[in-house]
Structure formats: C-alpha cells, structure tokens
Please model this.
Amino acid sequence: MPYTDNISLEEVYTAASPSFTYSYANIDTTDSLADQAQLQLRWELVTVTDDQGDPVQVSELPAGERTQIVVVDPVYYTVNPSANTITVDYDELSGSEVTVTDSQGGTATYTRPDFSVINATNPVKIRRSVDITEAVVAFQGGSRLTSDQLNAAVQQLLFASQELTEFGSASGAENEVDLSSESINSLGDVDINLGNTGAILVVGPNGDITDSTTGGTNAVLSVNGETGAVVLSYLDVGAAPTVHTHVMADVTDLDISGVGGVDVATTAPVAGDTLVFDGTNWVPAQPVTVASGTGAPPTAWTNDPSRRPGDLYVRTG
Model:
C-alpha cells in the first residue's frame, strides 16, 4: 500500500517512550477500514549490522532494501484503535534480524540495534496510507462466503487499486501505453509513457494514433535541427538563391568539345581582338591584317608577334 511523506498524515517521534507506546491521534483515519490496514510503523535507522557483525549504512543500500529494513513488521507491535496508539514489543524488536531481498532475488540479513536508541537521527514514524477512500460495498452474512471473507476481499481490491494508481504496476515496472488503433476522439486525459525517445504522436486520417518511430508513418522529427512548422529556404536544402552570379574562378572543368580552353593570361586581350586557335588554346589576337610594299615582306612585319597564319602581304612592286 502506498504511504505518504505528508506531515499531516505522519507522526514522528525522536525519543523513546517509557512504555514504548506511541499515539497516532493526530492522523486522520477513515472509519470504514481497520486502523491496522491504514497505518505503517517505520524506524528510520541510520546503521544496522550485517551477518559478519560489521556496521552498514542504511542510506547506502538500494531504496528497495532500505524500505525492507526501516518498515517494521506488524508482528512487532499492537494497534489500539480505541486509544489511537501503537505499542511496540520492545524485547522482540530490539536486536531483531531482518532478511531483505535485492532486485536480483538474492538475500541478505541485517540486525537492528536496541529499540530504545531513538533520537532525531533514528526517529520512529507512524504513517497513514495515501488516498484512502470509502468502501462502497459491505456484504452481509448468509452467503456461501462469510461476510468477513467478502469484506476482506473488498479491502484487498481497494488496496491493490491504490498501489496500481501510485506505482503503475504491481511489479514496479513502468507500463508502456499502447495507443494503436485508438481514436483521438475517444481519448480523455491520458498519461502517456512512451519508451521511444524523441517520438511524437501521429494521428492518421482515420483517427488512429501511432508514434513516429514504430507506427510506420516515418514522420519527420526535425529539419536541420528545427522542429514545429519549419519553412525551408534555399539554405536548408543546399540550393542557390533565385538571383545569383558566379565569378570565373567558380567555373571548373570547362572544355569546348575537345578543342582546348581559352587562354587570356599569356597575352592580354585589347579592344578589337578576336579569338584564334594556336593549336592548343584559343588566344586573343588582332583581326587578319593586310600589309603591302615592294619586294619581300619587311622583317618588322614578318616578326610581328601579332601576325598569324592567314595574314596577307601584298607586293606592289
């Protein structure tokens, strides 16, 4: 049964009572259930000894093992509902052994100290269970099962429902919520605990709910790290803007059908030049020129670096 740390539902004692009797009169219990079923006695010990006699710090043990040590078995105390008191069997509880079970099913035995060692560090607490509600059914005698058996069954069902509500399952494991084939229109306030990290819920056209990682929808979780209603730009998809230009250095592997490239670095072009093919590249040159004179062409014309095959020299005499 789940119990609360709420101070209004708990009594704390930091000193031993001479009669080892402790009151729970300030705790509000319900009349429809026996006080024994609503109360839990705890001895919040700091140190116990193991089966070798060595001290063990209770705080260093796993939570489940700590609970088994500090929660006192009802065989060690008596509840008096008329006086609203709990009386502890001092002789039996002092130095008592408690065998705890770990999460792997192994066991270990610890010994509690003398019960009179109660102080602010090792207090005794009386707690009431949380969310105790009124039983709605009270069976009467005359049935095949006795009324005591039936009424006890009702209480057990009540306690079991409280535990399931508090812890999720009787085994303490977290439950997966299966929303397959469920319509969002039929869901109320649902506490969802999906095991798929980063998953989102996807509602299909027919109202069926799946999650994005196992529902077969392959829903996009994010775009470039952005989630929600993402508006894509050319930057998001690696494209160029609508209006853009390039410099010549951006152009690579340019070839004109195997006839070479354009070389404007060796000879800088000037106004009026044309491109001529020098056998390897296209280079700038002056247009075909015609020269004339008498006799053989002069050396200056023959050696003119701008002269190209096809230039004409007309001999006039």
About this structure: Helices lie at 35-38, 63-70, 90-93, 147-167, 299-302.
